[in-house]
Specification:
alpha/beta, Glutamine Phosphoribosylpyrophosphate, subunit 1, domain 1, Rossmann fold, 3 domains, 36% helix, binds 5-amino-5-deoxy-1-O-phosphono-D-mannitol
Length: 607
């Protein structure tokens, strides 16, 4: 999401920082800033908007000096504004930060009780206060002050800290958010991504989880959070700048498929309370007594996420849910009004049809909740309430990490409503929340085993069409699998509810039709196995997506992709991953323009 660059050396820092941040622009951001030390203190220059706006500001307020930190912010806590832009300065301490401080509410209260005054809505400023408090208490070593402050913080983060009292040193810390150090000659660099500093150096130290790194002009010292020294040899990067933007992956889409364990973890951070068996939706509090039904409106992949949402929310809360395509619903003179909760789902928050549907819902008196990936985008601003996924900017036109984080949002919404409707009891909620927290590791296992899908893609990639089948919560995943394949490989694909096959699509089946069947263990397993047997009996080629340990599926499928087990409501978050990989590898095999498929736009802001 956000971008970090730090410099300590003999050259003018501002230029290096801004150039580095420019290389990270592709990740998306809504404000930018630098802090550069000169003549006894650092000057912070920051503003809402793009780097061009920052550069203009820097002409009026130059920031000369040869130690500095720079940041591009993609808003998560607090809207995009000059005040919320990084760096945040408290006393002599300036801080930039990527990630989320999970316990920010408790920290804010604690700091306020101690007399701290805040100038922004961000969680980052709290960390600046914590470090500054250590310095004020007499800790002269910046690394020690940062270490003491880190002991107070939970979450996923990468921080870089600068102290006006010691401009020769930058201190950085990493926990579950990327960070690298670049080694120069009489100068060193820090960045959230190799791309930012690749034009300056190719000698890179990758900072690992739970490490603090102290960087001066000619020394880089690594230690863990307890102060134990660590050592690591630098690596020489041979990627081109474009390859580096994609972190070495061939396409953004593949990179984003691999980012999913991280973005799902980010979407869960700070929202799950395992002690109270409940979830928090960024201050959104929904009272099921106040509405009689929920209506989801969305387009494309967000519509498929909503269909999964219908399944999860009805199962957990027993509140009736309807799902509609925004482009259809808005022109139907929909029957909606007070007592309805309309949930608008949009990754970009800018889709014209979804926006028009929100206007319609509001005009008719319904309450509107937006689920979006982009803070302060138009749909959340128009809605009465908003709740965000934290997938980070999605560059590939084909939605992947936005989809799985939307499914996480559906699960959180389901638990929230289920607990409040009284249908979801504490022990079941606990079990489900526990399963939710295990998902990132299971997702990693799946995306790391892409080689099997690559081999399957080679075997079936020449087919003229594909059929995807699923039942229950797997039906929307069949739709999503077909959409992904169509979008990027231009192969015709249909997603069908498996039980509907005999009512028509069965006529398509012959030895040339690959049929991807979603058949994880669950209440409709036997039914789907029967549908699979019907395909097999007509010589269709079956690719089964099944649960690890399923010994029965072996004899009846041509290819079997085994996945870890999880709760039925959460299975779609795992089963969609092999379908994303399959589409990707089929398209790669065909050589299409995967990140920008023909005729498609990332954000559809016209009707
Ligand atoms: O930004 P939104 O979620 O509102 O976008 C909706 C669709 O345009 C989008 O999901 C589209 O279908 C994607 N290309 C799917 O990969």
């Amino acid at each position: 999401m956000c971008g970090i660059v730090g410099y300590v050396g003999a050259r003018q820092a501002t230029l290096i920082l801004v150039n580095g941040l420019r290389k990270l622009e592709y990740r998306g951001y809504d404000s930018a800033g630098v802090a550069v030390w000169n003549d006894g203190q650092s000057r912070v220059v920051r503003c809402r908007g793009k780097l061009a706006a920052l550069e203009e500001k820097l002409i009026k307020e130059p920031a000369p000096g040869s130690t500095g930190i720079g940041h591009t912010r993609w808003a998560t806590h607090g809207r995009p504004s000059d005040e919320n832009a990084h760096p945040h300065k408290v006393g002599s301490i300036s801080v930039i930060h990527n990630g989320i401080i999970e316990n920010h509410l408790a920290l804010r209260q604690e700091l306020a009780a101690g007399g701290s005054k805040f100038t922004s809505e961000t969680d980052t400023e709290l960390f600046a206060h914590l470090v500054e408090r250590e310095v004020r208490k007499g800790t002269t070593d910046l690394t020690a002050a940062v270490r003491a402050a880190l002991a107070k913080v939970h979450g996923a983060y990468a921080f870089v800290v600068m102290n006006d009292k010691d401009p020769s040193t930058l201190v950085a810390a990493k926990n579950a958010s990327p960070m690298v150090v670049g080694l120069g000659d009489g100068e060193n660099f820090i960045a959230s991504d190799v791309t930012a500093i690749l034009s300056e150096t190719r000698k890179i130290i990758f900072v690992e989880e739970g490490e603090i790194v102290t960087v001066t002009r000619d020394k880089v010292t690594l230690s863990d959070f307890d102060g134990k020294p660590r050592t690591r040899e630098p690596k020489t990067i041979t990627w081109s700048a474009t390859q580096a933007e994609k972190a070495g992956f061939k396409h953004y889409m593949l990179k984003e498929i691999h980012e999913q364990p991280r973005s799902v973890a980010d979407t869960l951070v700070g929202r799950v309370d395992l002690e109270k068996d409940d979830v928090y939706l960024d201050g959104v509090e929904l009272d099921p007594k106040k509405f009689k039904r929920i209506i989801f409106i969305a387009c494309g992949t967000s519509y498929h996420a909503s269909l999964v949402g219908e399944f999860i929310i009805e199962a957990l809360s027993r509140i009736p849910v309807e799902v509609d395509l925004a482009s259809e619903w808005r022109y139907r003179d929909p029957i909606v009004g007070p007592g309805d909760l309309v949930v608008a789902v949009s990754q970009s928050g800018e889709t014209a049809d979804t926006m028009a549907a929100v206007r319609e819902a509001k005009a008719k008196g319904a309450q509107v909740l937006a689920i979006s990936n982009v803070l302060e985008s138009s749909i959340p601003r128009l809605a009465d309430m908003a709740f965000y996924t934290h997938a980070g900017p999605e560059i590939g036109v084909a939605s992947t990490k936005a989809f799985t984080t939307q499914l996480i949002a559906m699960a959180l919404l389901g638990v929230h409503l289920g607990r409040r409707s009284g249908h979801l009891k504490a022990p079941q909620a606990r079990e489900l929340l526990h399963e939710l927290m295990l998902l990132p590791q299971k997702m990693k296992d799946i995306v790391d085993s892409g080689a099997q899908l690559q081999a399957i893609a080679r075997r079936y990639g020449h087919a003229k069409g594909f059929l995807f089948l699923g039942r229950g919560a797997q039906y929307p995943i069949a739709l999503e699998g077909a959409l992904k394949l169509k979008e990027i490989s231009y192969i015709h694909a249909e997603g069908y509810a498996a039980g509907e096959m005999k009512h028509g699509p069965i006529a398509l089946i012959d030895e040339n039709l690959p049929v991807v069947v979603l058949v994880p263990r669950g209440p409709v397993y036997d039914k789907v196995v029967s549908n699979l047997a019907e395909v097999r009996a007509r010589q269709g080629k079956v690719v089964a997506i099944a649960t690890r340990g399923d010994v029965d599926i072996g004899g009846i499928a041509d290819e079997i992709v085994m996945l870890p087990d999880t709760a039925v409501e959460l299975q779609p978050i795992l089963t969609v991953l092999p379908l994303q990989l399959l589409s990707y590898y089929v398209a790669d095999f065909k050589g299409t323009d995967i990140d920008q498929p023909r005729n498609l736009a990332k954000s559809v802001t016209v009707e």
